[in-house]
Amino acid sequence: MSKRPHILIVEDDLGVVRGLVSGLQRAGFETSLAMAGDEGLQRILSEPFDLILLDLMLPGRSGFEVLDAVRTRVSVPIIVVSARTDLPARLDSFRSGAVDFVPKPFFMEELVARIRARLALTDESPRRERALADVVLDLDARVARRGEVDLGLTAHEFNVLAFMRERAGRVVTRGQIADHALPESGERSDRTVDSHVSRIRKKLGAPAAERIETVWGIGYRCAEEQP
User: Fold this and answer.
1) Please, what is the Cα angle at 146 between 140 and 150, to 5 degrees?
2) Is 86 left (phi over 0), alpha (psi -120 to 50) or beta?
3) For the chain, how long is the longest CA-to-CA vector?
4) What angle do CA 158, 126, 46 make, to 5 degrees?
5) How far apart are CA 100 and CA 115, in angstroms?
6) Rounded to whole angstroms, how far apart are CA atoms 17 and 168?
7) Residues in CB range of 147: below 8 A, 6 or more apart
8) Statement: the pTM of the whole predicted model exceeds 0.85
9) How many other C-beta atoms are found inside a 10 Å radius of the C-beta of residue 31?
10) Which residue among 18, 24, 86, 226 is least enclosed by CB atoms within 10 Å?
11) pLDDT (tens digit, 9 = 90+) per residue, 202-222?
12) How far is Cα 191 from Cα 169, in angstroms, rounded to an integer?
């Protein structure tokens, strides 16, 4: 990577946080912190990170709930770091989308090695991209671009567009868009969904905007792209 990998730590134990921040920064990583499940979820959905370290026992929304909420919406690798070491917790973490499980207490050297191994796999994987007429949706970088120009979609706008594009050819209701692409804590009315789609169309411009069809009384359909 040309830049320092950026890791989000979702952890509420200050002692663990201090050790993680210190150890990861010494290893050359940039770190950010969320100390509750809801805050972690919001940051995962709205900011670009290279990897997430996620505790399971968090204030408010649990780590399992965070995993379930982001599983189909972002591709950033998530490593669970938890004092829960029972087999059901480990299996449920993997079923919910975690790429690794590190029990507490842990050796910082081992955690750093696991992080580097996972980031190396991510770097070698082909980027997940989807075409929409002359626009490319980079699902990993979470940007929509025409050529080299970033079209400036917000995090919520990108979520809405990516959700529709991944279901190209199928009608999706406004309720489905709200449930899968917008945060539970925010405004999720039909009017809000329509406003997001309207702004997306303006930013995309023709011909990409014309690929998003309104299905009156129901929702929207993103037209299928020819192979």
Assistant:
1) 60
2) beta
3) 57
4) 25
5) 9
6) 42
7) none
8) no
9) 19
10) 226
11) 999 999 999 999 999 999 999
12) 23
Q: Cα–Cα distance between 63 and 90 in angstroms, integer?
A: 12
The tokens for 55 are 């505790």
**DSSP SS3 for 213:** strand
Q: Is 141 exposed, middle or buried (0-12, 13-18, 19+ CB in 10 A)?
A: middle
Sequence-ordered alpha helix ranges (H) in the chain: 14-26, 37-46, 63-70, 87-95, 108-124, 155-166, 174-181, 190-204
Fold held by 129-222: Arc Repressor Mutant, subunit A (1.10.10)
Nearest by Cα to 58 from 5, 17, 110, 114: 17
Q: Which structure tokens are listed for 186?
A: 């925010």
Look up residue 88 and give its DSSP letter. Answer: H
Q: Report the candidate in 72, 27, 76 with the shortest Cα–Cα distance to residue 54.
A: 76
The segment(s) of the chain belonging to CATH 3.40.50.2300 are: 6-124
Could you give phi then psi for residue 141, rounded to 5 degrees? -80, -15
Cβ(145)–Cβ(136) under 8 Å?
yes
pLDDT (mean) for 181-187:
74
| Yes or no: domain 6-124 corresponds to CATH 3.40.50.2300 | yes
> Do residues 82 and 101 lie in contact, with contact meaning Cβ atoms separated by under 8 Å?
yes
- Per-residue pLDDT tens digits for 141-181: 778 999 888 898 888 898 899 999 989 999 999 999 988 88
Pairing, β 51-54 against β 135-138? unpaired
